[in-house]
Design goal:
2 copies of one chain form a homodimer. The first copy, chain A, is mainly alpha-helical. Chain A has 9 helices and 3 strands. A 3-stranded antiparallel sheet of chain A has the order 1-3-2. In chain A, strand 2 and strand 3 form a beta hairpin. The termini of chain A are far apart. Chains A and B meet through helix 3, helix 4 and helix 7 of A and helix 3, helix 4 and helix 7 of B. Chain A binds a DNA duplex (30 and 30 nucleotides) through helix 3.
DNA sequence: ATTCTGTATGTTGTATACAATATTCTTTAA
DNA sequence: TTAAAGAATATTGTATACAACATACAGAAT
């Protein structure tokens, strides 16, 4: 009966296709902060009607990637220095919390995955490709976050991460930061493997602290 | 020139009117978990077209109050025991964080407001009206949360609070819990006024712990 | 030159129409 | 009686039309 079970769940509403397209464009910087998003133009460009474009833009607004003024349309969200600090402050608290929970809840299988992810991150650093480094960095942290088993926590952190993705990538491109990044990952890995939640939490906090300093100094050199 | 400055910013898109209407209906239990939300019916009931109803439903989905299946419509979100625990786990961490931050950042003016809110909560308990108690309870916590000055933190916590609003109200109606609630508020107030962040954080955590125990035992009496 | 006003244009907000898919009910066959 | 199939209905997804408002620009009055 299920020999040829081609997946019938592959349907994606157009609004979601548009949403993912625009989201990627924003996160990769193709659409720059402050740029206006006009429904008709985007609809024509993407070959759909205004309706799915509207719905996608609204979704992006609720995710915080787009800001809207009633009757004046939408634009790619600008993040202020204060906004960035606010996001990072919440992330620091939640990342530390994740690290502490991970000490209690991580499974042996996930421990192996985490070790592997740590190794692969270091290899990526050796290779030196920023995109690869960013990918492996995300993978490492995702294992920790997912090991908490708390879906609400996971989605909350992912939303925060999305807010600063654009700026974080600049941070990763700065090669001088990478040895420190590696060191911090190792400390965090070691603390989690030893179920030392105090040290794990502290390591996670320091990790974000350094990110914050670096990102802020790049975006707001005077501040 | 500004003698007669009638407010021109009063315009609210219909989608937001519908959104607030539906949101309130869900939070107050008029629309019950699992109930289907059908665009045409709601549109007719509210005297608008499908478009603003659709947009309002999508907004509710992103806020987590509604779940959608593509091409099958939306229904009021059901929260599972796991989902409730997950929300409360994140809230506990963030509420504790807020309490700690409040110790550092609360202004003298906010301190007075907090004292007043604490008193008013106790008066509400004496009067015994659940709705009033709930309102004063929210007001007390809002002062603490707002005193952090971190907008992202504020909106994140408010979203979490919204998820459990329906169940929390049942908790407040349980009169046997109220003396404990008052005691916990006093402890939290005292810790913040004395800038004792460790104690404030601990008090916030205990506060949520008790909520969790009480809410869970009411919704899932066997669990 | 500057400010105000009116008009033309562009954009969003809402309503509606049509298409595609889900659901329900009836009918038919075993 | 039950199960399956098919038609009828309901509902969502998308496109388009129209109205309301915002913006930009040109011209007139000061």
């Amino acid at each position: 009966m299920t020999e040829l079970s081609l997946n019938m769940d592959e349907y994606l509403p157009l609004r979601d296709v548009v949403f993912h397209t625009l989201r990627r464009a924003i996160l990769t910087g193709q659409l720059k902060p402050g740029e206006r998003l006009m429904e008709i133009h985007l609809a024509q460009k993407l070959g759909v009607s205004r309706t799915p474009v509207r719905e996608a833009i609204h979704k992006l607004e609720l995710e915080g990637l787009v800001t809207m003024m009633p009757r004046r349309g939408a634009q790619v969200a600008q993040i202020s220095e204060k906004g960035l600090k606010d996001v990072l402050e919440v992330r620091r608290a939640l990342d530390a919390f994740c690290a502490e929970l991970a000490c209690e809840r991580i499974t042996p299988k996930e421990e192996e995955e985490l070790k592997k992810a740590c190794r692969e991150f270091e290899e990526a650093v050796k290779i030196g490709d920023p995109t690869l480094i960013a990918t492996k960095d995300v993978a490492f942290h995702d294992i920790i976050i997912n090991s908490t088993g708390n879906e609400r926590l996971i989605s909350t952190i992912n939303n925060l991460a999305e807010q600063i993705y654009r700026y974080r990538f600049e941070y990763i491109k700065d090669a001088s930061q990478r040895p420190r990044l590696m060191e911090e990952h190792r400390t965090l890995l070691d603390a989690i493997l030893n179920k030392d939640s105090a040290r794990a939490g502290k390591a996670a906090r320091i990790h974000i602290d350094n990110q914050e300093i670096s990102i802020l100094s790049q975006i707001y050199p005077e501040g």
